[in-house]
Design goal:
Layout lengths: L2 E9 L2 E8 L7 E10 L2 H8 L14 E8 L12 E4 L2 E2 L5 H4 L10 E2 L11 E5 L3 E3 L5 H4 L2 H13 L7 E5 L3 H12 L3 E6 L2 H9 L4 E4 L5 H9 L4 E6 L4 H10 E9 L12 H5 L3 E4 L7 H9 L9 E6 L3 H9 L7 E5 L1
Parallel strand pairs: 10-11, 10-13, 11-12, 13-14, 14-15, 16-17
Antiparallel strand pairs: 1-2, 3-4, 3-8, 3-17, 4-5, 5-9, 6-7
């Protein structure tokens, strides 16, 4: 059996490069050679022990680009040598959500790098029907399609329109992709964070305004921006109680809150405020039907995504890459690992 290198998180705080058997594709699967794999906040959470859904030991990773090495004849026109990405959320096809076509909400969902082994390996196998042709996008751009899809799905959940003022909490990759998604849907979008360098990147990528909540009174800023009306939509892309509660405070009466950030801490609040303001609160999980759409959008040049990449590390420096994100001083956005 041929061997390959992979990244293994044996338990929280333990990360190493190991040698394991190279996978062999089964019926209906393709063998993919990983080119780039992005480090997601969920990968960091798995490493630090703060990922509520992770099991151990685990090979992390679910944002990736790859080259097809082996594939059987298929109806998708996929062939060896093509650059591709893939949908990393595995659904059971049998639960009530799957019956209704809401595959991203599968009751037994297994996400690569969390519930099952992921893309931080030299080779992986993937079901052919989960693979998406890159259509000429670069390998770096393709590795960004999955995180973009998370944010795009969330923004679509809120049914945004051209008259909306939107506030995104968090200028990390998911927050910036949420900003880009909301702008594509026609909204005016502001973004708030505590790291000035991240806000500068968000501004360079098209945010209509940025707010550093460490330097300014957020409530006062929002009232000034909106003429006292507050925001039509707040998108939470951090995953902590404080930002969710701030969404409630800063959204207008009759407004919408979209929750994308994932965390482990409980949030305590009086739910009557949701009634008083008659708020629509949307949970957003994974993505649904977004990969082809976003590949086409990036291919057409409607948005530029690779500006979000601030660092690329070789596989051999995987520990340094993880530590860089854990100790982020605001200069780090998306980190890719090169295979």
């Amino acid at each position: 059996m041929e061997k390959m290198k992979a990244v293994l998180i044996k338990e929280p705080g333990s990360l190493e490069i190991v040698s394991i058997d190279r996978p062999v594709p089964g019926k209906g699967e393709a063998l993919l050679k990983i080119i780039y794999s992005g480090i997601c906040g969920s990968d960091i959470a798995t490493y630090t022990g703060n990922q509520p859904f992770a099991s151990y030991p685990r090979i992390p990773g679910h944002e990736f680009s790859a080259q097809i090495i082996e594939i059987e004849e298929n109806d998708l026109g996929l062939k060896p040598g093509m650059l591709v990405t893939a949908n990393p959320y595995f659904n059971c096809k049998n639960c009530y959500s799957c019956e209704r076509g809401i595959f991203n909400c599968c009751e037994s969902n297994e996400t690569m790098g969390v519930h099952r082994d992921g893309s931080f390996a030299e080779y992986i196998t993937m079901p052919i029907d989960r693979i998406y042709h890159g259509k000429g996008l670069s390998a770096k751009e393709l590795a960004l399609i999955e995180p973009f899809s998370i944010s795009y799905h969330g923004a679509k959940r809120g049914d945004l329109n051209r008259n909306d003022n939107v506030l995104v909490f968090g200028a990390g990759p998911i927050g910036i992709f949420a900003m880009l998604s909301a702008k594509m849907l026609g909204a005016q979008v502001f973004i708030v964070d505590v790291l000035e360098n991240r806000l500068k990147i968000a501004e360079e990528m098209g945010a209509d305004g940025t707010i550093n909540s460490m330097d300014k009174d957020l409530d006062k800023e929002i009232l000034e921006i909106t003429g006292g009306k507050r925001m039509d939509v707040c998108i939470e892309a951090v995953g902590i109680p404080e930002t969710f509660l701030s969404c409630i405070d800063n959204v207008a009466f009759g407004g919408k809150i979209i929750l994308i950030g994932n965390g482990k801490r409980e949030t305590c609040f009086n739910h009557s405020i949701l009634l008083k303001k008659e708020l629509d609160v949307y949970g957003s999980r994974n993505s649904l039907g977004c990969f082809d759409v976003l590949i086409d959008i990036v291919k057409k040049g409607e948005v530029t995504v690779d500006k979000i990449i601030t660092h690329v590390y070789p596989l051999e420096q995987i520990k340094e890459a993880f530590e860089l994100l854990i100790n982020n001083d605001g200069t780090v956005e998306k980190v890719l690992v090169s295979f």
